[in-house]
Amino acid sequence: MVRRGRRSGRSRLVVHVLRPDQAPEAGRYRGEALPEAEANTAPTRKSTGSTRVGFVVSKAVGSAVIRHRVTRRLRHLMRDRYPVLPAGTLVVVRALPAAGDASSRELGADLDAAFRKLRVLDPDGPATGSR
């Protein structure tokens, strides 16, 4: 997913998005095995289902308490943005070390900026969920 989709980096986050129209077509090779390059990068599920979001928060962000706090904040922020994403979109949010010291408002602003750059959110629409 990370290799196939598009990504947008901010100072605290990197957001990877694979929209349903970017996913490889399942029947494109008509029963043949996928080429080696595509066999390793194809999503594990069909992208026609529901939107899925994953988080990567490494030890570089901080101690376990800080990593879990960042994950909880990101999960809460994505909960507000989830209905706006197209159905079947796959999202991976990777926290950078600066995310450990960031407030929820700053993380939300980074998420919105990344989604707008990736053209997932409407550029003229209101910021979702930034409290």
UniProtKB/TrEMBL annotation:
Organism: Saccharopolyspora kobensis
NCBIfam families: rnpA
Gene Ontology terms: cellular component: ribonuclease P complex
EC number: 3.1.26.5
InterPro entries reported for this sequence: Ribosomal_Su5_D2-typ_SF, Ribsml_uS5_D2-typ_fold_subgr, RNase_P
Function according to Swiss-Prot or TrEMBL: RNaseP catalyzes the removal of the 5'-leader sequence from pre-tRNA to produce the mature 5'-terminus. It can also cleave other RNA substrates such as 4.5S RNA. The protein component plays an auxiliary but essential role in vivo by binding to the 5'-leader sequence and broadening the substrate specificity of the ribozyme.
Disordered, as annotated region: 24-50
Pfam name, any one: Ribonuclease_P
GO biological process: tRNA 5'-leader removal
Annotated keywords: Endonuclease, Hydrolase, Nuclease, RNA-binding, tRNA processing
Family listed: Belongs to the RnpA family.
Record's catalysed reaction(s): Endonucleolytic cleavage of RNA, removing 5'-extranucleotides from tRNA precursor
Domain of life: Bacteria
Record's compositionally biased regions (Polar residues): 41-50
N-terminal signal peptide: none
Protein name, per record: Ribonuclease P protein component
Subunit composition and interactions: Consists of a catalytic RNA component (M1 or rnpB) and a protein subunit.
Cross-referenced HAMAP family: RNase_P (MF_00227)
Gene Ontology MF terms in the entry: 3'-tRNA processing endoribonuclease activity; ribonuclease P activity; tRNA binding
